[in-house]
Amino acid sequence: MSEEHAIFNRYPELKQFVHLLRYEVQQAQRPANEIVLDDETTMKILRISKRTLATMKAERTIPYSQERKGTPCRYLLSDVLDYVNKYRIESYENQRKI
User: pLDDT tens, 39-51?
Assistant: First the structure.
């Protein structure tokens, strides 16, 4: 759809929605090692508390980046997924030999 389409002139909020939708689609198509997460998103993915995340960072069980002390921490989605896979427990169904 062209940026100058007449419907965008009539409904400017539609144009804004289309831009947001395009951005979200582009984000979803990026590889995991290019997606940067903040503390909140990381805690939601791992279903942990702020204190647990702080402990994980202190014990260096999860990689993170921080420009300097006091600035927000950032995590790569690929590192968070690696952490999840590291502590994965296989089901009995996958362990059976037939």
Answer: 999 999 999 999 9
Domain 32-98 matching CATH 2.30.30: the answer reads: no
Overall size of the chain counted in residues: 98
Q: Tell me the domain boundaries of the chain.
A: 1-30, 32-98
d(CA 15, CA 17) in angstroms, rounded, equals 5
In one letter, which amino acid is 3? Answer: E
Tell me which amino acid residue 84 is: V
- Predicted TM-score of the model (pTM): 0.63
Closest listed residue to residue 87, CA positions, set 51, 48, 58, 50? 48
